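pinned: reference chain
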Amino acid sequence: GVDSNEKRQSEGDGQRSDSIMVLSINPDKKTTEIVSIPRDTQAEIVGHDSVEKINHAYAYGGPDMAVKSLEKLLDVPIDHYATVDMDGIKGMVDEIGGVDVISNATFSYSGYSFVKGEKTHLDGDKALAFIRSRKEEGAGGDFGQQERQQLVLRGIANELTSVKSLTNCNGVTNQIKENVTTDLS
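pinned: its structure tokens
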């Protein structure tokens, strides 16, 4: 996911990967695994001849450079990519009527409070607060943030596969078109 918030845009800073996940789908076993890569992981930025934070690859060369750098870091081929604008998460969550998650930490962020182990219903704004928090007391840093991002993505996936989401197929499709870039055809 990329986060092109107003502060970064006003400073002329490029989009950096705020969240990097590698999704492995095994159709034979019918399993899906998500591995989060810490955005501050030091890695060779392929095509930039430097070793620095892996999230810089996207800012330097978009998804192609990010994918090549991840392939080099992980020593695995990556067949496809999807880039999700973090602000788009808000719209997607709102279009599907929200998602339910069990918080992995007790913390407050952007006017919202979350309690570890407590189930909470997230609308779009609350979902953004849940996935953006990392430096606040109790939030668990990058690893806590990565876990929350996966919780929300799984919640979205669960809602998208439910009968309920079929009633708002156009709204969901529009949110995906506006906020997701991919090389999948």
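why pinned: The longest helix spans residues 141-160. The mean pLDDT is 88.
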